[in-house]
Amino acid sequence: MKVFKLLFLVLAMGLLSACSTNTVDKSPLENKLTVYSSIYPVWDFTSKVGGDKIDNKLLVPMGTEAHDWEPSPTDIAALEKADVLVINGLGMEFWANSVLGSLSNKNLTLIDTSKEANLIEGHHHDHGHNHDHEDEHEHEHDHEDQHKHEHDHDDETKLSYDPHIWSSPVQAKKQMKIIMEELSKKDPENAEYYKSNFEKYSTEFDKLDSEYRESLESLPNKKIVVSHEAYGYMTHEYGLTQMGIEGLIPESEPTPQRMAEIIDYVKENNVNTIFFEQSSGSKVAETIEKATGAKTKVLSTLESLTKEQIDNGDDYFSVMRQNLEALKEALK
Amino acid sequence: MPSILQYDFMIRAFIVGIVLSIIIPLIGVIVVLKRLSMMGDALSHSSLAGVAAGLAFGFNPIIGAVVATLLASLSIEAIRKKIPEFSEMSIAIILSAGIGLAGLLSGFIKNATGFNSFLFGSIVAISNFELIFVLFTGLIVFASLILLHKELFFIAIDERGAILSGVPVKSTNFIFTVLTAITVSIAARTVGTLIVSSMMVVPVACAMQLSKSYKQTAVLSIIFAVLSTLLGLILSFYIGLKPGATIVSICVCILIIILAIKKLRS
Question: C-alpha A16: how far from its chain's center?
Fold first, then answer.
């Protein structure tokens, strides 16, 4: 059976390359960097910068809840052979420190894309008062300083900073810039190529940013209720407030007390939409819908895209625009 | 009206919680008398394997739980028959199988929050369908247990004697197995698999400290279970705790208090 599959594949590859002029060569050639990216946003940014000069694989599988995912032994083995690992940072990858500590791969470059973000402090999720406090000082840290964000799995709700940087196009652009700079350091031959790719998307980010700004700043309502606080940088950027049913990391379900707080909040602020994310299901959102009459709608966290979305050719920009439409509808 | 009852979801939680705290201890009394206290644990972990299979392969997890729990309880019975002198071993075997399978299958689940809600229950988000389902099955389980209570008690105390005096042991055991499987599965969805097994044993343990007869034990276990559920839900609402875990902890506290009082008196 395996033999037939292989034969078939070889034939198919042959046919494809015969028919198409621009062949996509999947085998990691010696001059291609082997890159692993942790979650969808950084994978997408890395793919856009690296183009066909890198072989970029996404670690967290499509449609999987990104906060829960941990590398399997197979993934660790793959990382031993990799050139670059791109992570979001700030505890989005709670496994990063222990995995990096256990690797013997001396060649591996870690790209932490959170280095230049204007950080928002993570707050212990309590009693629904939402303070978005921005830490203005650009905190610089090199990889030795990683342990600052040491984050063990049992201590989920105590992230020191909100890791969902990509939710703001302004911060996402910085993430892509870091990826471009680090890739250029690792692979100076293609530095120009990486730079030109970054510049192309840099204007895309600016465009997205101004779309968000123009659409959201004129809307009368500013409060959104979301399944977990995955939109902090976006809400901060455009003057919205997010009320998360759960904190920075989705765990299981809110306590009865939290449920009551959310229901009161929705009623008091005339919130007309409860946003939930595809991956987590809508059971809790529907309960709130029953209690308040607000509608439930999807707002993607972008932490992970489903297979359907990828097959549709969705990317960071298209999903961010879908989110914008949903937000406009909800805040009218 | 206290503020806790202004919320529809809390009223649902109370209804479901009370129904379950009536039927789970009733099953628990029989299980404890049969010396199978860990049965609830084995079954709830097996139900978790069914849930995981459902979530991983895209069929209804509750159906998965019912099937898995049925298989598990029938297997326990079968193994128990093979090694009557070490009947508790059958539970350990099925418990291990359940945990193993649940763990394996959970690797194929794309989103852990759904799975977690089965571990710790989803009592704040009970849908209409779940509410009706719990009420309906609760009624059936309750009625069957009441109708069969004499036979069940006899078998639990002395299986050989029951066979000799012509009690339909096989069919009674089978019905009890099915009832247990259904109860564990509906409870897994609402109060969580971790709670089910505790509810089966701890209220019964409390009742046994105070009562001498089978009937009294059954009634008292229900009272303790309902009390813990009400207190647990109220506390979790006002202090912001996880409801399932709060209910169990209160039940254990009640047991400790009862034991302490007994000790002081003697």
Answer: 33
More confident residue, A281 or A235: A235
Residue of A nearest to B10 (CA): A256
Kindly determine whether residue A281 and residue B123, on different chains, have CB atoms separated by under 8 Å. Answer: no
Q: Do A281 and B113 touch (CB under 8 A)?
A: yes
According to the model, what pLDDT value does residue A11 have? Answer: 53
Q: Is the pLDDT of residue A138 over 60?
A: no
Q: What is the mean pLDDT of residues B154-168?
A: 93
Question: Does A280 contact B113 at a Cβ distance shorter than 8 Å?
Answer: yes
Cα A228 to Cα A275: distance, rounded to the nearest angstrom: 9
Q: Does A68 touch chain B (CB under 8 A)?
A: yes
- Among the listed residues B36, B21, B15, the one whose alpha carbon sits nearest the alpha carbon of residue B226: B21
Q: Name the band, by pLDDT with cuts 50, 70 and 90, for residue B261.
A: very high
Give the single-character DSSP code of B125. Answer: S
Q: Please tell me the distance in Å from B172's CA to the nearest CA on chain A.
A: 38
CA atoms within 13 A on the CB side of A221: 17
To which H or E segment does residue B215 belong?
Answer: helix B214-239
On average, the pLDDT of chain B sits at 91
Chain A residues in contact with B7 by the CB 8 A cut-off are 256, 259-260, 263, 291
**Which pair of structure tokens corresponds to residue A114?**
């959170």
Rounded Cα gap, residues B23 and A245, in angstroms: 32
CB of A62 closer than 8 Å to CB of A310: yes
What are the tens digits of pLDDT across the range A34-66? Answer: 999 999 999 999 999 999 999 999 999 998 889
Residue A46 is encoded by which pair of tokens? 């890395």
Cα angle B143, B148, B152 (rounded to 5 degrees) comes to 130
| Banded pLDDT at A233 (limits 50, 70, 90) | very high
pTM over 0.85: no
Which residues contact residue B128 at a Cβ distance below 8 angstroms, ignoring those fewer than 6 apart?
none
pLDDT at residue A37, as a whole number: 98
Single-letter amino acid code for the residue at A82: A
Q: What span, in angstroms and rounded, lies between the C-alpha atoms of A30 and A76?
A: 21
Beta bridge partners of A244: A226
CB pairs under 8 A between A and B: 91
From the CB of residue A209, how many other CB atoms can be counted at a distance below 10 Å? 18
**Calpha distance A315→A318 (Å, rounded):** 5
In angstroms, the CA A301 to CA A303 distance is 5
Residue among B192, B187, B257 at smallest CA distance from B27: B187
